[in-house]
Design goal:
With about 375 residues, the protein is of the alpha+beta class. Helix content is about 30%, strand content about 25%. Strands 4-5-3-13-14-15-12-16 form an eight-stranded mixed sheet. It has a six-stranded mixed sheet with strand order 6-2-1-10-18-17. The chain is globular and about 65 Å long. The two termini are about 30 Å apart. The relative contact order is 0.19. Pathway: Cofactor biosynthesis; thiamine diphosphate biosynthesis.
């Protein structure tokens, strides 16, 4: 089978490497830091777009496949590595939804369980939420995963595979192209030859393509998050046991009782500095939903960079004008959500298998700055 070089060791890059290696490819994965320490670590881990009925069909198609894959993927990684990604399927409570008709139309069309529920139902599920909630929506099948541990498990699994080589701490400085075909990459430690290159560089994907004179619309969007450490409550319950979403902010419980609040949306180029304003905004949002967090210590506050593409639809596929150069980037807020599906779609194309998902909506769109435009979207 062919050799493949993957740029970027986030959840997209690692799942792409895993699928290709298990299909018989020899894979080299290059990451400038340690795998899983950028946006894949910084996210929340909800295995669904936040308001799935508001997304386009291409995002929904990937999401449906990925949601089906996550339970068995988490179980398999735990068995293979001993690292539990903590997949939890405890449902999600939506509060203050103002487009319920759209939500129910979406749910009926896709056969998703979605219920309108009363305040008493909500407080039975989560008794320490703020007072005054009269109604909401309940999606019982929604799951979440502890993304840092998922990344640890993926990395550990890749390190056991003889067909996979991890090159961490290696900065990619450029892509090598000759006569319309990729030939490898230039790194901080020299050139690595490759006949097939997959760019999974997240928010930095556009930077590498820019050095070839290719303008692909993937930009960084900063997101800040916060983590509270809580204590067990009465009868062995945690302060929060399922995901709660209100006014675009969400609370995510972890198995050890920690509660995560996210997130901001900021146009700040590649600046990942946490800010005082975001700290206070996140804290106030968390207390408005779950007042008891006021007595819980804030353990961590951080920022990450989402790779945003137009309309949130990722680019997945080969650049037609550069043979052998593939892209799997631009997932915006849904990188972890869509990872199993986008990795499968990319692997199908590289291996020339019949794709499970129609690849047409994800074909890379870009411009050459040499004066002419090429679009395949």
């Amino acid at each position: 089978m062919q050799d493949v070089l993957i740029i970027g060791g986030g959840v997209i890059g690692m799942m792409t490497a895993l699928q290709l290696a298990e299909a018989g490819c020899s894979v080299t994965l290059v990451e400038r830091r340690r795998c899983g320490e950028e946006a894949s670590w910084a996210g929340g881990g909800i295995v669904s777009p936040l308001y799935p009925w508001r997304y386009s069909e291409p995002v929904s198609n990937l999401s449906r496949y990925a949601e089906q894959e996550y339970p068995q993927l988490a179980t398999r990684l735990f068995e293979e590595t001993g690292i539990d990604p903590e997949y939890r399927q405890k449902g999600l409570l939506y509060l203050g939804v103002n487009d319920g008709d759209m939500a129910f139309n979406w749910a009926r069309r896709l056969g998703k369980p979605l219920e309108a529920v009363s305040g008493s139902f909500i407080y039975t599920k989560e008794p320490w939420l703020a007072e005054g909630i009269e109604s909401g929506l309940w999606m019982p099948t929604l799951g979440s995963i502890r993304n840092p541990r998922l990344c640890q498990a993926l990395r550990a699994r890749l390190m056991t595979l003889p067909r996979v080589t991890l090159e961490e701490g290696l900065t990619v400085e450029g892509l090598c192209v000759q006569q319309g075909r990729v030939t490898g990459i230039e790194t901080s430690c020299g050139r690595i030859a490759a006949g097939q290159v997959v760019l999974c560089g997240g928010a930095w994907s556009g930077v590498l393509l820019d050095r070839l004179g290719i303008a692909m619309p993937v930009r960084p969007v900063k997101g800040q998050m916060m983590l509270f450490r809580t204590q067990p409550m009465a009868e062995g319950r945690q302060l929060l046991e399922r995901v709660v979403l209100a006014d675009g902010r969400y609370l995510i419980p972890r198995g050890d009782g920690r509660v995560l609040i996210g997130s901001t949306l900021e146009e700040a180029d590649f600046d990942k500095t946490p800010t005082v304003d975001a700290y206070e905004s996140l804290r106030q949002s968390a207390l408005a939903m779950l007042p008891a967090l006021a007595g819980c210590p804030i353990e961590h506050h951080w920022a990450g960079l989402r790779p945003a593409a137009p309309n949130g639809v990722p680019f997945i596929g080969e650049l037609p004008e550069i043979k052998g150069l593939f892209v799997n980037a631009g997932h915006y807020r849904n990188g972890l959500v869509l990872a199993p599906a986008s990795a499968r779609l990319l692997a199908d194309q590289l291996l020339m298998r019949t794709p499970l998902i129609d690849p047409a909506p994800y074909r890379p769109a870009y411009q050459y700055r040499s004066g002419w435009e090429q679009s395949t979207a």
